[in-house]
């Protein structure tokens, strides 16, 4: 009988497990511990109990950040689903050309966020950017929108960039999913006189439901956690109008140096996201299990 | 007759939508490239933003001569390569064992690892700062590569697990009977079959690391040790007329990802679909 640690099942998994504990498990526990202390970048940690949590719950800027995060994530998701269907199903109608158009459409999803965000920042420029230029050409002459500087417009501008990045992904998922739907169903529906809308509602949607539920939840979570896009475009401004979870946490922890307070922000929200997280991870594990894990 | 008219209309609408989507995808990237070769004079007039009359490489020269762009680029290549290599090696070992010996421990670990992937990076960045600080790895590229493992490793395990599942167990059982060790079976029989999956995982991990922004922003302070993402973003704070150089940096910084992308487009789309249908 071989020693427990030398069995291949353990031996092969062990290095990965150790690294996961070191860079994920331990940091997570450390983060939870830090949230109960007054740790700053310069000073050591003193235990302060639930002080940080109490502080944030009482502060209106935390709730504003939380609300902004929900708006940002739902806005992105909503636009991605609507335009994803539009583009994905259109791509399906031009199936023969999908090998040409598919790669071009997916580009925004490939380009590094930092780079595409800087390009959008430049497009948003009120005087020299192409957005106002196009609007001018389209007849809104003199309409110089301050896309990122106007507190009422900034969130929509940020959502627009985020949606621009995500729509291609949804389009291709929906395109690929649509290819899997048996054509006979549509033939039969047509014979029965079903119009396009009911074909869409009663055949396409039910077939894509499972895929879309997973992809949408993942996108919602990832958008809600997003940092680079908002940080580069607005740094959470103007006047906190686009402040989201990650930018708030980062600014407090590293720019103000209050690590204990900063790390509390995402930890405070995490329980609210837990149902979504569990849904995604169980779905993914289920998928792996079905393959015979 | 009416039906055919409707079909034509739908085809026409489909073409319009797809062309609009292609335009929306390409115009920002086109505008980035055009800006990068525009002389400042044309940039500031702004009457024909989408056209360039006197293309120039001035912004590229400025970028390479007066900013540490070359260093940033090299730093990103270094960090992304190290973390990708480690994540791929450890991920392949772990995924192989989990797929062949699905003990309860292995399954629980996989679930936990996946769950970690769904926790905001903002939670990890503070403890990683302190961890690297106590290891004296703060502000170093090695430290950054170590920190990147917190997202590349779970991802590589997850992705590779999917690929390993598709290889029938009979194959490595046959190898074992022929006298291979587990290690030999993995190295000589399974991995060659998995070449394309390994390449796809490699590309994903590399691009994730290439694109990462928050970790290097927090964990690196010295300008010359910045990654390309933080470096380019830091140019925005500097000179107000830096559009040309920033867009030149963006153009150059996109190239590695685009090259990879051209290689594995089919795989990406296949993977997206497989990943999502499975779920």
UniProtKB/TrEMBL annotation, chain A:
Q: How does it sit in the membrane?
A: Multi-pass membrane protein
Q: Where in the cell is it found?
A: Cell membrane
An example of a Gene Ontology BP annotation on this entry?
transmembrane transport
Cross-referenced InterPro entries, in alphabetical order? ABC_transporter_permease (IPR051393), MetI-like (IPR000515), MetI-like_sf (IPR035906)
The ABC transmembrane type-1 domain is annotated at 66-278
Annotated SUPFAM superfamilies? MetI-like
Q: Which GO terms describe its cellular component?
A: plasma membrane
Primary localization: membrane
Per UniProt, the keywords (alphabetical) are: Cell membrane, Membrane, Transmembrane, Transmembrane helix, Transport
Superkingdom: Bacteria
Membrane-spanning residues where? 12-33, 70-92, 104-123, 153-176, 211-233, 259-280
Under CDD domains, the record lists: TM_PBP2 (cd06261)
Record has Phosphoprotein as a keyword: no
Provide the family line: Belongs to the binding-protein-dependent transport system permease family.
Name of the protein this chain belongs to: Sugar ABC transporter permease
UniProtKB/TrEMBL annotation, chain B:
The answer to keyword Nucleotide-binding applying to this record is no
One GO biological-process annotation of the entry reads: transmembrane transport
Q: How does it sit in the membrane?
A: Multi-pass membrane protein
- Kindly give the CDD domains that the UniProt entry links to this protein: TM_PBP2
Provide the transmembrane region boundaries. Answer: 12-31, 72-98, 110-129, 141-164, 185-210, 240-264
User: Chief localization class?
Assistant: membrane
Compartments in which it is found? Cell membrane
Which PROSITE patterns does this UniProt record tie to the protein? ABC_TM1 (PS50928)
* Residue span, ABC transmembrane type-1 domain: 73-264
Q: Which UniProt keywords apply?
A: Cell membrane, Membrane, Transmembrane, Transmembrane helix, Transport
Q: Which Gene3D superfamilies match?
A: MetI-like
One Gene Ontology CC term in the entry: plasma membrane
What family does this belong to? Belongs to the binding-protein-dependent transport system permease family.
- Designated name of the protein: Carbohydrate ABC transporter permease
Annotated organism of origin: Candidatus Caldatribacterium californiense
């Amino acid at each position: 009988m071989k020693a427990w640690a030398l069995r291949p099942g353990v031996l092969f998994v062990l290095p990965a497990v150790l690294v996961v504990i070191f860079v994920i498990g331990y940091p997570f526990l450390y983060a939870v511990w830090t949230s109960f202390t007054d740790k700053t970048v310069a000073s050591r940690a003193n235990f302060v109990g639930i002080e940080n949590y109490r502080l944030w719950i009482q502060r209106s800027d935390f709730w504003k950040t939380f609300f902004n995060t929900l708006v940002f994530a739902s806005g992105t998701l909503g636009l991605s689903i609507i335009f994803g269907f539009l583009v994905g199903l259109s791509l399906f109608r031009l199936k023969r050309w999908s090998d040409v158009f598919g790669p071009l459409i997916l580009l925004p999803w490939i380009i590094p966020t930092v780079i595409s965000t800087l390009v959008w920042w430049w497009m948003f420029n009120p005087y020299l950017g192409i957005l106002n230029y196009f609007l001018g050409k389209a007849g809104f002459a003199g309409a110089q929108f301050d896309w990122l500087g106007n507190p009422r417009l900034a969130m929509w501008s940020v959502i627009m960039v985020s949606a621009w990045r995500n729509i291609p992904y949804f389009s291709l998922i929906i395109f690929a999913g649509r290819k899997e739907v048996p054509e006979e169903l549509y033939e039969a529906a047509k014979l029965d006189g079903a119009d396009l809308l009911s074909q869409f509602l009663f055949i396409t949607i039910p077939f894509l439901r499972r895929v879309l539920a997973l992809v949408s939840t993942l996108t919602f979570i990832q958008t809600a956690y997003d940092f680079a896009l908002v940080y580069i475009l607005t740094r959470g401004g103007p006047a906190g109008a686009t402040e989201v979870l990650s930018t708030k946490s980062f600014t407090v922890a590293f720019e103000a140096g209050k690590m204990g307070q900063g790390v509390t922000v995402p930890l405070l929200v995490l329980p609210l996201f837990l149902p979504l997280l569990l849904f995604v991870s169980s779905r993914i594990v289920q998928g792996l299990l079905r393959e015979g894990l | 007759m009416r039906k055919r008219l409707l079909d034509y209309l739908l085809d026409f609408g489909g073409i319009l939508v797809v062309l609009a989507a292609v335009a929306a995808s390409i115009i920002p990237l086109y505008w980035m490239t055009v800006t990068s070769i525009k002389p400042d004079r044309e940039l500031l007039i702004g009457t024909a933003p989408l056209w360039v009359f006197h293309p120039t490489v001035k912004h590229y020269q400025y970028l390479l001569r007066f900013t540490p762009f070359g260093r940033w680029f090299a730093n990103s290549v270094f960090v992304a390569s190290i973390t990708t290599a480690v994540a791929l090696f450890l991920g392949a070992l772990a995924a192989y064992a989990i797929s062949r010996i699905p003990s309860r421990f292995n399954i629980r670990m996989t679930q936990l690892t996946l769950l970690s992937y769904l926790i905001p990076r903002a939670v990890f960045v503070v403890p990683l700062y302190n961890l690297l600080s106590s290891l004296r790895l703060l502000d170093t590229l090695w430290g950054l590569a170590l920190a990147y493992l917190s997202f590349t490793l779970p991802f590589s395990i997850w992705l590779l697990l999917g690929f390993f599942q598709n290889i029938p167990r009979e194959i490595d059982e046959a190898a074992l009977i022929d006298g291979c060790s587990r290690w030999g079976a993995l190295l000589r029989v399974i991995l060659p079959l998995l070449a394309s999956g390994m390449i796809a995982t490699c590309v994903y991990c590399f691009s994730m690391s290439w694109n990462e922004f928050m970790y290097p922003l927090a964990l690196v302070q010295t300008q010359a040790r910045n990654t390309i993402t933080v470096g380019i973003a830091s140019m925005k704070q500097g000179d107000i007329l830096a559009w040309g150089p920033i867009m030149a940096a963006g153009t150059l910084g996109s190239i590695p990802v685009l090259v990879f992308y051209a290689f594995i487009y089919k795989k990406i789309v296949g993977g997206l679909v497989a990943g999502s249908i499975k779920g």
